[in-house]
Write a structure and sequence with these properties.
The chain is of the alpha+beta class. It has 14 helices and ten strands.
Length: 381
Amino acid sequence: MSVDDTGSGADGDGRVDPEPAPDAADSGEDPLALRLEGLILGAERRYTPFQAARSAGVSMELASRFWRAMGFADIGQAKALTEADVLALRRLAGLVEAGLLSEAMAVQVARSTGQTTARLAEWQIDSFLEGLTEPPEPGMTRTEVTYPIVELLLPELQEFLVYVWRRQLAASAGRVVQAADDEEMVDRRLAVGFADLVGFTRLTRRMEEEELGELVEAFETTAADLVAARGGRLIKTLGDEVLYAADDAGTAAEIALLLVETMANDETMPELRVGLAFGTVTTRMGDVFGSTVNLASRLTSIAPRDAVLVDSALAEELIRTQDAPASEAVAAEEAAAAEKAGEELPSYRFALQPMWQRPVRGLGVVEPWLLTRRGDENDRS
């Protein structure tokens, strides 16, 4: 039977009697694709979108908003949905009905989850599954080995995904409960850094696609590892650029210098430039926004090659926390006074050199500071 938006096909109590899913021959779809879909989803196709919405007890309008937020295309009234789709709708709608989430927030939950997992799924298929499903013997096709490989991997990957999500959720919740007040949970003072590969556009014209993909993957992997190991948070990657954040200026500065040093020691990598800014940042759906983020991006665009530029707020924070001296002259005076008094010499991790002031569109006049390690040959008094 067919069901349209008038509600035909529902029985007396509003429930829908789903029809059996069509076989591959009827649908014109690849049989293996349908088998893989059934394996991964754990259920067969039984519902049209209208039937699924009715079975979940939600309006078709709300169901469409949820599905689009999760990143799924409109499919008209094709019979392509499963019991899992119905259950997901019920859960989201139930959170709204219970007052735990507003409808707008439930849509945001669907969107953030969809966007994050869509990228994960694409990566797993493109970079992971393709390599594993290379035919192990001559004469075998990838099709013949894909299904059993997925069947073996699926439960393990699912458990690992849930584990990582719980770990990340615990870390994020810990940061939130330590916030000073409710406003700080949304608008927080963070150090934000952009790291950008120099000359990437020219590289795209000179390198083969496979080589370019390997370079980008190596850059993203290295950056992600360094950011995580030093206590920062990778916000997103944009091919030749990464955006990260840290709760304190010292952590962000250490990550920035490590990124430059690590890339400089890799002959296969282009030069890198990094911009850092410190200030109030709005966090939303795992991303960061605001003038502090914009300033970090602008500093990156004007930074010298293999160098780190920071804004005056981050420089002041490094001086306040005694991670850097106000100037080399001040450091020398402190060292002389400590030596005369027989006290321990001050120990600074970083050095700051004021650069030229320049106007930045939308941000006014900016005074960048060149960040280096104490003792680097670039340090100047």
